[in-house]
Amino acid sequence: MHVVALLLLAMAAESHAGDNVSVKPFSIAAGETKTIEVELTQEDKVYTALNFDIILPEGMTITKDEEDDYNVTLNLDVANKNHQIIMGMIQTDNHFRLIVASTLLKQFKKSGTLMTIEIKASDMVSTGTFKCQTTDKNLVIDSNNSTWPEDTECDVDCHMDVSVSALGYATFSWPRALDFSDTDVEAYVATEVTGDVLKMTRITKVPANTGIILKGAADTYHPQTTDSPTDDAEGNLLLASAKAPYTVSTDNVFVLSNKSEGRVGFYPAAQGLVIPQYRAYLQTDAEGLARGLFFDDSTSGIGQTEIGKKKNGTWNQKTDNIYDLGGRKIETDNKDLKTRNDGFYIVNGKKLVIK
Q: From start to end of 4-111, where are the E strands?
């Protein structure tokens, strides 16, 4: 109570241009937990205490530790070891009042990063540039003198991070609708299972809570959240774990993997396997132990899929135009299919499945 009373008694306001407390600009991904910095500037006077309100962009909040205390940490290079942080009465989802004071009226040592605050952006946050405000500030010189700096705001870049591994594929789902139009990664839904082939159809504006497969170079991509109408994903066979991790409890669940060298596909998942949140999986009672991916993309130049049986099978095309899906040419001196790995091959512009 003594600390709070000190701030309330310091009512003789002075103007000291340049003295302030503010949040540094920061960037954060949807769903990310991040540490931000609060900067103290004291050019004219040296202060003993301060208080301010921080208003984070909608969808962001200050995190708490296991003891239900807010994750706010003083920097003792700037604050004195006698200073302490008190959370004020204003505590909403994104609006907080913070008080820093010393019962011994110790002064802050210098300008610089006064404290760090751990915040989290929810997975429902919008992408774009927003503002983080610091308002209702009071920098206390002593029990009789203080200054009331102007409100400030900083830019906050909020974005989506979606990663594709070296396999060139990844499953994904998100609780908000996403627009992949301006990215270099392609999004697909699964529309049909035929034998060992899973037919995929490309979409760009993905509905919320929709399981998709991403196809692209190994990298991190940044789709945008959208409130506009999305593409039709009705009949999509991929299930989403956008709301929570999913624990496999049946024998008909398949997950994206590369168990057979050179053949990325959906393979049976063991019961008890936990599929992480924000992924997708296939659940089907169709016969067959593995699902190959068929990307139904009109720009690929790949048409109908044919089946090549290993038993008594040979290459039946008299051509050198045989490639794997990575674009590598296949030597065809030995035409016996039994010497080939299971998987997809491109023959004369058509997809051939060897199994």
A: 12-14, 20-23, 26-29, 33-41, 49-55, 60-62, 72-74, 83-91, 95-102
